[in-house]
Amino acid sequence: QSCRQLAKTLTPKLEMCITNRKPITLFPNTAPWEDTCELTIFDHVPGVKSRHDDPASKRKATVERIRNLAGDYNIYTDGSASGGCLEGGAAAVITIGDTENPITVDRIMQRGRRLTCSYEEEACAMELATEWINEHCAPHTNILICTDSKSLCQKLSGTSIHAADLRQKLLRSPGNITIQWVPGHSDVPGNELADAAAKEATMIQTLPSPISYNTICTH
Length: 219
Prior knowledge:
Layout: H1 3-10, E1 38-42, H2 55-69, E2 73-82, E3 86-96, E4 103-111, H3 118-136, E5 142-147, H4 150-157, H5 164-171, E6 176-181, H6 189-201, H7 213-218
Parallel strand pairs: 1-6, 2-5, 5-6
Antiparallel strand pairs: 2-3, 3-4
């Protein structure tokens, strides 16, 4: 018998109601026997409605939000690409202390792809943060990662296969990780540090990262 025929035979014998079942997703999940970290993702800032908000109120709401989340480490990530598609760079800036006057503990920079997109460099920056967390943090550490890529937050929150590998890396990292979207170009100190580091990363004198198949197809 085929699997379908057997399913038709067995289904009427089930006592439970099997209507309105959630669809099976092919999104890879962490194996149940593996330890995973506490991962929370926010793709908005309370009090910020759009990028057209008053810059001062947007900055104030964002700084207050970061302060309230109270990470032992606040990691700011950013990606850079000239014209949105050329000469990429990615960076993660690890800070401690007050949000208004962050103290930089470490800066990790990586030259990106010659042909790229902003999302790929933002995702690369998040991977750099994950690598630092794996090397330096303990299971009880509270880590806040701030990124100005809303699309990255949304993909990590959903079931996008384009963020599946990155999500798995985050889940396997030690500590309690919170990812918070922050509005870009809003004079948030840590985000400005990451933006400058990402631009600096585009000029690192090393071989560029390999160009992805998706980017080649797009171009």
